[in-house]
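C-alpha coordinates please, single chain.
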Amino acid sequence: MKNQHIDSCPMDISDDDILKAMKDISGYLDITPGDFKEIYRFAYRHTVERLKHSVKAKDVMTRNVVFVKKDTSLEDVADILNRHLISGVPVIDDHRRVVGVISEKDFLFHMGAQDKRTFMGVVAHCLKSKGCVAISMRKQNAEDIMTSLVITVGENTPISIIANTFTDKNINRVPITGENNKLVGIVTRTDIVKASCYIENSIESKE
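Here you go.
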Protein backbone atom coordinates (compact mmCIF):
# COMPACT_ATOMS: atom_id res chain seq x y z
CA MET A 1 0.00 0.00 0.00
CA LYS A 2 1.35 3.40 -0.97
CA ASN A 3 2.07 6.10 1.58
CA GLN A 4 -0.27 9.05 1.04
CA HIS A 5 2.11 11.83 2.22
CA ILE A 6 2.62 12.83 -1.39
CA ASP A 7 -0.93 14.23 -1.41
CA SER A 8 0.14 16.97 1.00
CA CYS A 9 3.05 18.26 -1.11
CA PRO A 10 2.75 22.00 -1.84
CA MET A 11 2.03 22.59 -5.53
CA ASP A 12 2.28 26.41 -5.65
CA ILE A 13 5.06 28.22 -7.47
CA SER A 14 7.21 29.90 -4.85
CA ASP A 15 8.90 33.31 -5.02
CA ASP A 16 12.21 31.49 -5.19
CA ASP A 17 11.01 29.60 -8.27
CA ILE A 18 10.15 32.92 -9.93
CA LEU A 19 13.53 34.45 -9.02
CA LYS A 20 15.39 31.44 -10.38
CA ALA A 21 13.31 31.61 -13.55
CA MET A 22 14.14 35.29 -14.03
CA LYS A 23 17.84 34.55 -13.61
CA ASP A 24 17.58 31.95 -16.37
CA ILE A 25 16.49 34.62 -18.87
CA SER A 26 19.47 36.55 -20.18
CA GLY A 27 19.40 40.23 -21.08
CA TYR A 28 17.07 43.11 -20.19
CA LEU A 29 13.51 42.19 -19.19
CA ASP A 30 10.68 44.38 -20.44
CA ILE A 31 7.71 42.49 -19.06
CA THR A 32 5.20 41.62 -21.75
CA PRO A 33 2.76 38.70 -22.03
CA GLY A 34 5.45 36.87 -23.98
CA ASP A 35 8.05 37.58 -21.31
CA PHE A 36 5.66 36.42 -18.62
CA LYS A 37 5.04 33.17 -20.46
CA GLU A 38 8.78 32.60 -20.68
CA ILE A 39 9.20 33.34 -16.98
CA TYR A 40 6.34 31.00 -16.21
CA ARG A 41 7.91 28.26 -18.34
CA PHE A 42 11.17 28.48 -16.38
CA ALA A 43 9.31 28.81 -13.07
CA TYR A 44 7.30 25.71 -13.91
CA ARG A 45 10.50 23.78 -14.53
CA HIS A 46 12.02 24.95 -11.23
CA THR A 47 8.81 24.07 -9.40
CA VAL A 48 8.82 20.54 -10.76
CA GLU A 49 12.48 20.10 -9.83
CA ARG A 50 11.90 21.51 -6.34
CA LEU A 51 8.99 19.17 -5.72
CA LYS A 52 10.89 16.18 -7.04
CA HIS A 53 13.52 16.93 -4.40
CA SER A 54 10.90 17.40 -1.69
CA VAL A 55 9.11 14.11 -2.38
CA LYS A 56 10.95 11.34 -0.57
CA ALA A 57 11.15 7.58 -0.93
CA LYS A 58 8.85 7.15 2.07
CA ASP A 59 6.14 9.13 0.24
CA VAL A 60 5.92 6.78 -2.75
CA MET A 61 7.34 3.44 -1.65
CA THR A 62 5.41 0.20 -1.30
CA ARG A 63 5.50 -0.78 2.36
CA ASN A 64 3.97 -4.23 2.01
CA VAL A 65 7.04 -5.58 0.22
CA VAL A 66 7.15 -8.95 -1.50
CA PHE A 67 10.48 -10.50 -0.52
CA VAL A 68 12.27 -13.84 -0.19
CA LYS A 69 14.86 -15.15 2.24
CA LYS A 70 18.35 -16.38 1.47
CA ASP A 71 17.27 -20.01 1.82
CA THR A 72 14.11 -19.69 -0.28
CA SER A 73 14.33 -22.28 -3.05
CA LEU A 74 14.63 -20.98 -6.60
CA GLU A 75 11.48 -22.92 -7.43
CA ASP A 76 9.60 -20.89 -4.80
CA VAL A 77 11.26 -17.63 -5.91
CA ALA A 78 10.14 -18.21 -9.49
CA ASP A 79 6.61 -19.04 -8.28
CA ILE A 80 6.49 -15.85 -6.18
CA LEU A 81 7.63 -13.65 -9.09
CA ASN A 82 5.06 -15.27 -11.37
CA ARG A 83 2.23 -15.09 -8.84
CA HIS A 84 2.78 -11.40 -8.08
CA LEU A 85 3.55 -10.47 -11.70
CA ILE A 86 6.85 -8.81 -10.74
CA SER A 87 10.34 -9.17 -12.15
CA GLY A 88 12.41 -9.00 -8.98
CA VAL A 89 12.37 -9.01 -5.17
CA PRO A 90 14.70 -8.13 -2.28
CA VAL A 91 16.42 -10.99 -0.45
CA ILE A 92 16.59 -10.68 3.34
CA ASP A 93 18.23 -12.56 6.22
CA ASP A 94 16.57 -13.73 9.43
CA HIS A 95 16.83 -10.20 10.87
CA ARG A 96 15.02 -8.64 7.86
CA ARG A 97 18.27 -7.06 6.68
CA VAL A 98 18.64 -6.69 2.91
CA VAL A 99 21.40 -8.97 1.64
CA GLY A 100 20.63 -9.01 -2.06
CA VAL A 101 18.14 -8.74 -4.89
CA ILE A 102 17.01 -11.53 -7.19
CA SER A 103 15.38 -10.88 -10.54
CA GLU A 104 14.54 -12.46 -13.87
CA LYS A 105 17.97 -11.37 -15.12
CA ASP A 106 19.67 -13.48 -12.44
CA PHE A 107 17.67 -16.52 -13.52
CA LEU A 108 18.50 -15.93 -17.17
CA PHE A 109 22.18 -15.43 -16.43
CA HIS A 110 22.44 -18.69 -14.48
CA MET A 111 20.53 -20.80 -16.96
CA GLY A 112 23.57 -21.44 -19.11
CA ALA A 113 23.23 -18.34 -21.26
CA GLN A 114 25.64 -15.96 -19.54
CA ASP A 115 26.22 -13.99 -22.72
CA LYS A 116 22.50 -13.72 -23.52
CA ARG A 117 20.59 -11.93 -20.79
CA THR A 118 17.27 -11.95 -22.65
CA PHE A 119 14.37 -14.35 -22.69
CA MET A 120 14.83 -15.16 -26.38
CA GLY A 121 18.54 -15.68 -25.79
CA VAL A 122 17.71 -18.39 -23.29
CA VAL A 123 15.09 -19.90 -25.63
CA ALA A 124 17.69 -20.10 -28.38
CA HIS A 125 20.13 -21.70 -25.94
CA CYS A 126 17.50 -24.24 -24.84
CA LEU A 127 16.73 -25.21 -28.43
CA LYS A 128 20.42 -25.92 -29.02
CA SER A 129 20.92 -27.86 -25.78
CA LYS A 130 19.92 -31.31 -24.61
CA GLY A 131 17.33 -31.08 -21.88
CA CYS A 132 16.18 -28.13 -19.81
CA VAL A 133 18.88 -25.64 -18.82
CA ALA A 134 17.07 -24.96 -15.53
CA ILE A 135 17.50 -28.51 -14.19
CA SER A 136 20.82 -27.64 -12.52
CA MET A 137 19.05 -24.91 -10.52
CA ARG A 138 16.42 -27.13 -8.91
CA LYS A 139 18.41 -27.66 -5.71
CA GLN A 140 19.62 -24.07 -5.41
CA ASN A 141 18.34 -21.25 -3.20
CA ALA A 142 17.99 -17.50 -3.64
CA GLU A 143 21.43 -16.81 -2.15
CA ASP A 144 23.06 -18.97 -4.84
CA ILE A 145 22.17 -16.68 -7.74
CA MET A 146 21.09 -13.36 -6.20
CA THR A 147 22.90 -10.11 -6.85
CA SER A 148 24.58 -9.49 -3.50
CA LEU A 149 26.03 -6.05 -4.27
CA VAL A 150 22.60 -4.53 -3.78
CA ILE A 151 21.90 -0.80 -3.86
CA THR A 152 19.62 0.44 -1.08
CA VAL A 153 18.49 3.93 -0.06
CA GLY A 154 16.95 5.45 3.04
CA GLU A 155 13.37 6.60 3.52
CA ASN A 156 14.30 10.27 3.18
CA THR A 157 16.08 9.93 -0.16
CA PRO A 158 14.49 12.30 -2.75
CA ILE A 159 12.84 10.55 -5.70
CA SER A 160 15.02 12.63 -8.04
CA ILE A 161 18.11 10.88 -6.67
CA ILE A 162 16.42 7.48 -6.94
CA ALA A 163 15.49 8.20 -10.56
CA ASN A 164 19.11 9.08 -11.36
CA THR A 165 20.25 5.88 -9.62
CA PHE A 166 17.92 3.81 -11.80
CA THR A 167 19.45 5.38 -14.90
CA ASP A 168 23.08 5.30 -13.77
CA LYS A 169 22.99 1.72 -12.48
CA ASN A 170 20.50 0.36 -15.04
CA ILE A 171 18.22 -1.10 -12.36
CA ASN A 172 14.44 -1.16 -12.03
CA ARG A 173 13.91 -1.23 -8.28
CA VAL A 174 15.64 -0.22 -5.07
CA PRO A 175 14.90 -1.55 -1.57
CA ILE A 176 14.25 1.11 1.07
CA THR A 177 15.97 0.42 4.36
CA GLY A 178 15.65 1.80 7.83
CA GLU A 179 17.68 1.24 10.97
CA ASN A 180 20.31 -1.54 10.74
CA ASN A 181 19.65 -1.93 7.01
CA LYS A 182 16.26 -3.52 7.70
CA LEU A 183 13.80 -3.63 4.81
CA VAL A 184 10.93 -1.13 5.19
CA GLY A 185 9.78 -0.68 1.58
CA ILE A 186 10.63 -0.71 -2.10
CA VAL A 187 10.52 1.85 -4.92
CA THR A 188 10.32 0.87 -8.58
CA ARG A 189 10.62 2.79 -11.84
CA THR A 190 6.82 2.74 -12.04
CA ASP A 191 6.57 4.49 -8.66
CA ILE A 192 8.90 7.25 -9.87
CA VAL A 193 6.93 7.74 -13.09
CA LYS A 194 3.64 7.91 -11.19
CA ALA A 195 5.06 10.41 -8.68
CA SER A 196 6.47 12.62 -11.45
CA CYS A 197 3.18 12.55 -13.35
CA TYR A 198 1.32 13.39 -10.14
CA ILE A 199 3.55 16.41 -9.51
CA GLU A 200 3.22 17.75 -13.06
CA ASN A 201 -0.55 17.13 -13.24
CA SER A 202 -1.05 18.81 -9.86
CA ILE A 203 0.86 21.90 -11.01
CA GLU A 204 -1.10 22.02 -14.26
CA SER A 205 -4.38 21.83 -12.35
CA LYS A 206 -3.39 25.05 -10.57
CA GLU A 207 -3.11 26.99 -13.85
